[in-house]
Amino acid sequence: MVSTALIEEQRDLLVRIVATLVKTADRAAAQPLEALRALASDLGQAPESLASVYENIARASVLI
Predict the structure, then answer these.
(1) Residue ranges of the domains in the chain?
(2) For 7-38, what is each residue's pLDDT tens digit?
(3) Is the full-model pTM beyond 0.70?
């Protein structure tokens, strides 16, 4: 939740953050295998272990 004061004081920053989140989500949806590998790398996990947890990208695990 974002406070009204923060919205008023940092509107440009919040707009950039939300735009980046939307862009990242769109890219992950378009390239689920790449997203899975990036997330696995960031978390220090095997892509296979994450594919079993995230059902919406589990089908990408076939390509690993």
Answers:
(1) 1-30, 32-64
(2) 899 999 999 999 999 999 999 889 888 888 89
(3) no
